[in-house]
Specification:
Elements: H1 2-7, H2 9-15, E1 50-59, H3 68-73, H4 84-97, E2 103-105, H5 108-115, H6 120-131, E3 135-137, H7 152-170, E4 178-181, H8 189-198, E5 202-205, H9 210-219, E6 223-227, E7 237-242, H10 275-290, E8 297-305, H11 311-331, E9 336-340, H12 343-353, E10 356-357, E11 359-360, E12 368-370, E13 373-374, H13 383-405, H14 413-426, H15 438-468, E14 480-481, H16 490-494, E15 497-503, E16 510-518, E17 522-526, E18 532-533, E19 536-539, H17 542-545, E20 556-564, E21 568-577, E22 589-594, E23 599-600, H18 602-607, H19 613-625, E24 633-634, E25 640-644, E26 654-663, E27 690-691, E28 694-701, E29 705-712, E30 716-723, E31 729-735, E32 746-753, E33 761-766, E34 770-775, E35 795-797, E36 800-805, E37 807-813, E38 817-820, E39 826-834, E40 850-851, E41 854-855, E42 858-865, H20 870-881, E43 885-890, H21 896-900, E44 905-907, E45 917-925, E46 928-935, E47 945-948, E48 956-964, E49 981-982, H22 990-993, E50 1016-1019, E51 1024-1033
Parallel strand pairs: 1-8, 1-9, 2-3, 4-5, 5-7, 6-11, 10-49
Antiparallel strand pairs: 6-7, 12-13, 14-43, 15-21, 15-43, 16-20, 17-18, 17-21, 19-20, 21-44, 22-23, 22-28, 24-25, 25-26, 26-27, 26-32, 28-29, 29-30, 30-31, 31-42, 32-39, 33-34, 33-36, 35-38, 36-37, 37-42, 38-39, 40-41, 45-46, 46-51, 47-50, 48-51
Helix pairs in contact: 2-7, 7-14, 10-11, 13-14, 13-15, 14-15
């Protein structure tokens, strides 16, 4: 492993950025004679003795009640007394005083903000502390990420970013060896798999369901072997420990400026003397804790939220606690030994004890902290923030790819890093979750928006370089970022001629419906080969036009289908032509039907102003006939409308869509029975949602798509859309502003009702990757007592939820949401929440988002699939998560002929990735590149795939590659995976086993796929392989 860090040293010197002069790293990374770090620096445990690992730590949220900067600088202490810079200053000083002391740090975002501001002298001290194992990093990602709303791609990225900083700065001694997920509100199976692939030896959790914890304490199963992925088998296993007291110190032993506990007073002459009482209380506590674990080791977390701003208070008292506890233990032959330790060292002690551990094959969702507190509301809280995070990821993947593919100047990496940092912050468990104060949410959005705007410089450079081609001469276009989720784009709205540039970040060809906000008129769109392509003009719904603060004059969307190459960019030429009575030919026919079935010709009346009645009548008849297809809607009465969507491969798909809301509980939170619904907690005051009635239905039909628009009471718009060219149905929804004039908070849901008998079973994804079976009113590993049957059956849906029984009904989401199946044949997803009371878990604010004094309006999309083909579904999921990115540039003064002389189509790959493979990561890595390839097939398929890395990219010759662990901070050859003794077996498929009465085979690791052949690599099912590659450009 040392070879890896030596090889990375040059990169570290190049990448290190410091406000002050930096210390030469070659003098600081390698341990000196007599110094040890990692497991070698751990204190020795004693057999036959209860070894008590005292672990000083701080938990520093990367934004929550205060913004990131407010937390770092200690601003706004009227909100919360917290200043991270003072924590690190104080801890370093106290660690330096005594070599026995230990401390761990977790959040690299804060550490790096502090590090680059330190003097040479302080940096030298920190290097020494790290080399001697006195300061250890755990977790090490940019932030402690959430595990419900995050996507695995963004999780990998933010770990890679945080760990790269530690690697550059501290080398081998800075390597985190355990995951430290002590505050997220539930834990995903996929994260366990990812951490195992990153080379972590163990994982520690703080929060697990109160019933699960009670069972585990009773059965001594708080520590286990967790299998992260059935297809990956033992490669995904990781030791997992649930902490005894979340992450807090024992009651009475918080020695912090933020706490009121008594210090240890050891002056026998003082009336405050309390050593005997304190030590007896503490030793009784550790003995009680030890009864619930299987080895002679216990871990005692000594810290909490933003503790150690005055580290001397802690260490002075902990020194006394350790000293006097050991004296009493020796005197009374208690066989207890206390010492400073770290999670790494505790894990090593467990490993050395060689226990037989129970197994786990599911996940830790949903999490409840008491009978009425199910933390399932945050799966949906702040839905616009969740959507913006997805957009941020799409931009990040695009600019990382373009920086490599276009061979741009290396100084661009500075702005790439800004976006990596912003996205790392967004993964924090109080950011993407929506569980922060409102002003903090605004600051998160500011950070991400600024980073995106800055990073788009890379895209503009790449696209202009591509447009110039070999000539090196071409106009420079602006490639403006538009707000398509609001149907708003200044450039397309105001320009008579403009260029649309579309980039596909996936390594296979896709077709995408491009929708451009425009004012009413006639437009022509030309493809790069000069062909005039089919378009359709669709009126923007009034509900969208009324979105607060929209600031747009657009009345319609100009729609066309873009056929895009893998990792390709295409530009289209759009011009507005004179409006005549024939201009409507590329439009759509719209007919309103009221809830009583009475036709309204208001739309036709408006069109009569620009065309004669004869033309309109003919157009209307043609549109209604439309090749003799049935209308897309039926039965406008009641709370929903049945939908027949005509798709390319199937004549009809019958299902019903309805909307409803749960009134949120409103209580004083003094006892569980009075728990309010809030940012974290979903707690409706009824087990039955209140249905919302349909007000009117209209239909649109044209050359590219057909729509059913349903207006629903409660400020809901539902648009069911079928494209003639696509195999799916798109459901666009708009919710809000949610009215709270009646003093009741509301949580809006959509219900998809089918005739599938799913027997109370449904499937949700784990962070956008593997699918897990869920059973109504049940948990896999304990007998569930459920007093909240609705929130207790909600699960996180990152990308996908489905039900099946012979046939399958799948819903894909454009952001993370909460989902369930409470009724046979039904899929329910929560879309939006507006509440009037806090749930008393710390935020201190109601989840009541407003814009210009009105409730927040949320607009989004679901995609409905009926296929069971795993590759088809996977590709739809990927395209939903990483859609093509669209830019618009003013082309005034650029004629069609001039545009045709540009290079308007660029392919960056030689051949598409074969079915089953996904290019997960392509990014610059100093003078090299980081490349990740993923096999997304499951073991149930013919799943091992070989690919020649040399044959992927145009213009790039890969000279050599060397494989790393998933986070690219260790060479794979240097990583030795730990194995554990297990009681019980894993099964080949958790989903098959859970709730089944049929025999399911025990898990057996499949055969080795053999060695790679140079740059021809093989990937097994669900495997992600990471490489650092030396390249040269051939163009």
């Amino acid at each position: 492993m040392v070879k890896f860090y030596a090889a990375m040293l040059v990169l570290a010197l190049l990448c290190l950025v410091s406000i002050s002069s930096s210390v030469p790293l070659h003098d600081q990374i390698t341990p000196r004679p007599g110094e040890t770090c990692g497991y070698e620096s751990c204190p020795k445990t004693e057999p036959g003795v209860l070894n008590v690992h005292i672990v000083p730590h701080t938990h520093d949220d990367v934004g929550w009640l205060k913004t990131v900067d407010q937390y770092y600088y200690g601003s706004r202490n009227n909100i919360q007394k917290a200043g991270v810079q003072y924590i690190l200053d104080s801890v370093v000083k106290e660690l330096w005083e005594d070599p026995k002391r230990r401390f761990i740090y977790v959040e690299t975002a804060f550490f790096w903000k502090w590090w680059v501001r330190q003097s040479r002298r302080v940096k030298s001290k920190v290097h020494t502390l790290v080399r001697q194992g006195r300061l250890q990093f755990v977790g090490g990602a940019w932030s402690m990420n959430d595990e419900a709303a995050v996507h695995y791609q963004s999780t990998i990225d933010q770990f890679t970013w945080g760990l790269s900083k530690l690697n550059e700065t501290f080398g081998y001694c800075g390597l985190p060896r355990v995951g430290w997920q002590i505050d997220p509100f539930g834990h995903s199976r996929e994260l366990a798999s990812l951490l195992s692939a990153m080379g972590y030896d163990g994982l520690f959790l703080g929060r697990i369901d109160y019933q699960d914890k009670r069972t585990r304490l009773r059965d001594k199963t708080m520590e286990m072997v967790w299998r992260g992925d059935d297809d990956l088998g033992k490669k995904s296993d990781i030791f997992t420990g649930a902490l005894y007291n979340t992450y807090s110190p024992p009651a009475g032993f918080c020695f912090d400026v933020l706490c009121d506990d008594e210090p240890i007073v050891d002056d026998a002459g003082s009336p405050l003397y309390n050593v005997d009482d304190k030590i007896t209380l503490f030793l009784n506590y550790v003995k009680k804790q030890s009864q619930h674990y299987r080895t002679d080791n216990v871990i005692i977390t000594m810290g909490g939220d933003f503790t150690y701003q005055d580290a001397a208070m802690w260490f002075t008292n902990l020194d006394k606690l350790i000293e006097y506890s050991n004296l009493k233990a020796a005197k009374d032959d208690l066989k207890i030994k206390l010492f400073y330790s770290t999670p790494n060292c505790y894990l090593k002690a467990i490993k050395d004890a060689n226990p037989v551990l129970p197994t786990k094959q599911d996940d830790f969702f949903p999490y409840a902290s008491d009978p009425t507190a199910y933390w399932t509301g945050y799966f949906t809280s702040r839905p616009t923030t969740k959507y913006f995070e997805r957009e941020g990821n799409a931009y990040l993947q695009m600019v990382k790819q373009l920086q490599v593919l276009s061979n741009l100047e290396r100084h661009n990496e500075f702005i790439l890093n800004e976006l990596k940092s912003a996205m790392g912050i967004m993964q924090h468990h109080d950011a993407i979750t929506g569980t922060e104060k409102q002003h903090v949410a605004h600051d998160y959005e500011r950070i991400l928006s600024t980073a995106i705007d800055d990073a788009l410089l890379v895209a503009r450079q790449a696209f202009n370089k591509a447009a110039q081609g070999d000539s090196g001469k071409a106009p420079l276009f602006s490639y403006d970022r538009c707000h398509f989720n609001e149907s708003r784009c200044h450039t397309s709205e105001t320009s008579e001629t403009f260029m649309v540039t579309v980039y596909n970040p996936l390594a296979w060809g896709v077709r995408e419906a491009v929708k451009l906000p425009v004012t009413y008129g006639h437009y022509e769109v030309y493809a790069p080969n000069g062909d005039k392509i089919v378009t359709q003009l669709v009126e923007i719904p009034d509900e969208v036009k009324r979105i607060p603060n929209r600031r747009s004059e657009a009345t319609h969307e100009l729609v066309f289908i873009a056929h895009l190459h893998p990792l390709g960019v295409k530009s289209f030429y759009v011009k507005r032509v004179s409006t005549t009575k024939r201009a409507i030919a590329n439009g759509s026919y719209l007919e309103w039907i009221s809830s009583e079935g009475v036709r309204s010709d208001g739309y036709l009346d408006r069109l009569n102003q620009i065309a004669d009645a004869k033309d309109l009548t003919n157009l209307g008849l043609d549109a209604i006939a439309d090749e003799g297809k049935e209308p897309l809607w039926e039965d406008a009465n009641g709370t929903g409308a049945a939908f027949k969507g005509t798709m390319k491969k199937r004549e009809t798909d019958d299902f019903k869509i309805s909307f409803a809301y749960y009134p949120g509980c409103l209580g004083n939170n003094e006892v569980p029975a009075n728990r309010s619904s809030g940012a974290y907690i979903f707690r409706p005051n009824s087990t039955k949602a209140i249905g919302l009635n349909v007000e009117s239905v209209s239909e649109i039909s044209g050359d590219l798509l057909s729509e059913v628009r349903t207006k629903i009471r409660g400020n809901v718009l539902s648009i069911k859309r079928a494209y003639k060219e696509f195999d799916f149905i798109e459901h666009e929804w708009l919710v809000g502003p949610i009215s709270v004039d009646d003093g009741i908070g509301k949580e809006y849901v959509v219900k998809y009702q089918t005739d599938i008998i799913n027997n109370g079973e449904f499937y949700t994804d784990s962070n956008g990757r593997q699918m897990l079976k869920r059973k109504l009113n049940a948990r896999p590993q304990w007998n569930l007592t459920l007093t909240e049957p609705v929130p207790g059956n909600y699960y996180p849906v990152t990308n996908e939820i489905y039900i099946e029984n012979g046939e399958r009904f799948t819903v894909l989401t454009d952001r993370s949401q909460g989902g369930t199946s409470l009724v046979e044949g039904e899929v329910e997803l929560m879309l939006h929440r507006r509440l009037l009371h806090d749930d008393a878990f710390g935020v201190g604010e109601a989840l009541n988002e407003t814009v210009l004094g009105s409730g927040l309006v949320v607009r989004g999309k679901h995609r409905i699939l009926r296929s069971k083909d795993p590759v088809e579904i996977a590709k739809s999921v990927f395209q939903m998560h990483l859609p093509p990115v669209v830019f618009v540039s003013d082309a005034s003064g650029l004629s069609y002929e001039q545009w045709m002389r540009l290079e308007n189509c660029k392919k960056f790959v030689k051949t598409p990735m074969p079915d089953g493979l996904h290019l997960l990561t392509l990014e610059p890595w100093g003078d090299q590149i980081l490349l990740r390839v993923e096999n997304y097939k499951t073991g149930a398929e013919d799943s091992t795939i070989e690919i020649d890395l040399q044959g992927i990219f145009n213009g790039i010759h890969i000279k050599t590659v060397k494989e790393t662990t998933l986070a690219a901070n260790q060479w794979l050859d240097d990583y030795d995976k730990w194995t554990w003794n297990r009681e019980g077996d894993f099964y080949e498929s958790f989903n098959k086993k859970y709730g089944s009465f049929e025999a399911v085979n025990k898990a057996v690791d499949g055969p080795d796929v053999g060695e790679d052949d140079g740059l021809k690599i093989k990937l097994k099912a669900k495997e992600i392989r990471s490489f650092i590659a030396d390249i040269e450009y051939t163009d």
